[in-house]
């Protein structure tokens, strides 16, 4: 679904472009994790309470511009369709600050993995090389 409406069934068409571009699901995931941490859950316990569907909607393959009918190019292992949720990795720098993966902008065909801190400062990047894809 490219741009949908409030009545677009997400379970049928996947996230709309508006939901993806606004980081709607990512925000909801971090809100739930933060609430879990505030309730004295461990980070692992807080993440384990995230419903699989919610995590799946935030998967890059569900980006309306990258997945489904719009998918093109080579994939590393098969067709790029997610088959399960293995968990959430937590990245930290040497000072122990948590780093977050910057979302891939819709209009980029390739994009490096960019890790930013909570203030949005880039702390690390892993360049994308098409030859390795």
UniProtKB/TrEMBL annotation:
Keyword Ligase on entry: no
One Gene Ontology cellular component: plastid
InterPro entries in alphabetical order: PS_antenna-like, PS_II_antenna-like_sf
GO MF annotation list: chlorophyll binding
Subcellular location, principal: membrane
Secretion signal, residue range per the UniProt entry: none
Membrane topology label: Multi-pass membrane protein
Subcellular compartments: Membrane
Entry annotated with the keyword Transmembrane: yes
Protein name: Photosystem II CP47 chlorophyll apoprotein
Source organism of this protein record: Aegilops tauschii subsp. strangulata
């Amino acid at each position: 679904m490219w741009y949908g409406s409030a009545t677009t069934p997400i379970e049928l068409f996947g996230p709309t472009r508006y939901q993806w571009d606004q980081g709607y699901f990512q925000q909801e995931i971090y809100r739930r994790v933060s609430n879990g941490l505030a309730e004295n859950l461990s980070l692992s316990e807080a993440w384990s309470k995230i419903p699989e569907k919610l995590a799946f909607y935030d998967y890059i393959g569900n980006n309306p511009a990258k997945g489904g009918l719009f998918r093109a190019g080579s994939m590393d292992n098969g067709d790029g369709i997610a088959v399960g949720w293995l968990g959430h990795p937590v990245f930290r720098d040497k000072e122990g600050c948590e780093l977050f993966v910057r979302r891939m902008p819709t209009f980029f065909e390739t994009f490096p993995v960019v890790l930013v801190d909570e203030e949005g400062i880039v702390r690390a990047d892993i360049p994308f090389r098409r030859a390795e894809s």
